[in-house]
Amino acid sequence: MARLVWRRFPWPWVTLIDRYLWWSLLPSFIFAAAVFTALALSVGTVFDLVRQVAEAQMPFSLVLRIIWLQLPYVLTLVFPMAILLAVLSTMGRLVEDGEWTALRSVGISLYRLLIPLILFALLVSGITALLNETWVPLARYQSEQLMASFLRQENFVAPADDIFYPEYGPNNTVRRLYYARRFDGLNMQGLTVLDFSQPDLTQVINAESAQWNSQAHTWRISNGIVYLISQLGDVRDTLQFEQQQLTIPRPSQTTDLLLTEIRELSIVQTRRALKKAIDQRDRELQRALNVHLQQSYAQPFLAVVFALMGVGFGLSQRQRLGRQGFGLGVGVIFGQYVLTYLTAAMGMIGWLTPLLSAWLPHGIGIGVATLLIVRVNR
User: Fold this and answer.
1) For 277-314, how does the pLDDT look when each residue is reduced to its tens digit (9 = 90+)?
2) Integer-rounded Cα radius of gyration of the chain
3) So where does this one cross the membrane (predicted)?
4) Long-range pairs of 357-364 with CB within 8 A, sequence gap ≥ 24
5) Cα atoms in the Cβ-side hemisphere of radius 13 Å centred on 340
6) pLDDT (0 to 100) of residue 120
7) 107 Cβ contact list (under 8 Å, min separation 6)
8) Among candidates 167, 161, 220, 150, which has minimal Cα distance to 185?
9) Spatial distance between the Cα atoms of 116 and 4, rounded to a whole number of angstroms
10) Cα–Cα distance measured from residue 324 to residue 197, given in angstroms and rounded to the nearest whole number
């Protein structure tokens, strides 16, 4: 039924051969995306979560939620793989069924055949870029927050002396400032809190100690005193207490952007972080952000590279493609990703420019695909 609707729908600018190829690509693409997604989630996420369930008794509902939040990122990885396998199988079937020979006999060249394939790949590239800039950063952040929140109930943060950190409110304004002489991951000693949450009043809380309640996510502050200070600097009132519950964020060890966190940034976030790194004259962070920025531009176009390689390999492996197409696709994917990670590492240490480290694997892939296509079209 769907095929009939597809054929009878009026496509004023799309020829019959274009619709035929798109209809042939779509089922293979969906099947390959489903297979690769299941594999990627199993290897990258599910195994680790199963270990957490066994060791830390993580709730099953939390496991499902984390898997759901990891799904957008996994899709951006598997879409290029899926299009390679879809093009390989489609080209192989055209050869095996003699349709490729029939098309050439009526004057349809290989270069004409590339147009709908590249358009399909560009559509996949656009969807990948859209996911990378919208859903992926937020979903990965929420996933990590869920995991960190769960693990904080079991593990302590490393001890530190003289910790100081701000709490931000709306419009990125400082809401509270916290200082403690000693923090062992669960208890704070010598706590001082400057509370600016009320516009006409400042609260200063001095307390002997505070203990973290992991169940309620609050601090139980002991033996303290609260000073209420007006805008003119007068102490309006004081309040002593033995114990008080206070909902404040747990201190983090650092607010600086870590190199391992860069790959989770979107293009907009990367450009913002790059501007800050330039102001701070942090050359190592600048190089890492520039490499990630160029990779963010290049990654969605991997679908186009794989589509071209799929055409070249698909039409040149005529008789063996049906049996070895999947293995060939996995080999091409593995080689391309190894090359991508290798050039990215060379960019991070300064052996390649950020632009070259991101686009060199694409150039090599397109070069290989072009040689194959030219040889097949002779």
Assistant:
1) 888 777 888 888 899 899 999 989 999 999 998 888 88
2) 28
3) 20-47, 67-88, 109-131, 297-316, 328-352, 358-376
4) 357/291, 357/294, 357/295, 358/291, 358/294, 358/295, 358/297, 358/298, 359/294, 359/298, 361/336, 362/298, 362/301, 362/302, 362/305, 364/339
5) 20
6) 93
7) none
8) 161
9) 20
10) 65
Q: What is the pLDDT of residues 304-341, one digit of tens each?
A: 999 998 888 888 755 455 456 667 777 888 888 888 88
Residue 353's CB: how many other CB atoms inside 10 A? 16
Q: Which residues pair with 218 in a beta bridge?
A: 213
**Residue at token pair 């358009």:** 119
Residue 123 has φ and ψ, to the nearest 5°, of -60, -45
Give the number of residues written for the chain: 378
Full 3-state SS string of the chain: CHHHHHHHCCCCCCCHHHHHHHHHHHHHHHHHHHHHHHHHHHHHHHHHHHHHHHHHCCCHHHHHHHHHHHHHHHHHHHHHHHHHHHHHHHHHHHHHCCHHHHHHHCCCCHHHHHHHHHHHHHHHHHHHHHHHHCHHHHHHHHHHHHHHHHHHCCCCCCCEEEEEEEEECHHHCEEEEEEEEEECCCEEEEEEEEEEEECCEEEEEEEEEEEEECCCCEEEEEEEEEEEEECCCCEEEEEEEEEEEECCCCCCCCCCCCHHHHHHCCHHHHHHHHHHHHHHCCHHHHHHHHHHHHHHHHHHHHHHHHHHHHHHHHHHCCCCHHHHHHHHHHHHHHHHHHHHHHHHHHHHCCCCCHHHHHHHHHHHHHHHHHHHHHHHCC
The rounded distance, in Å, linking the Cα atoms of 65 and 217 is 21
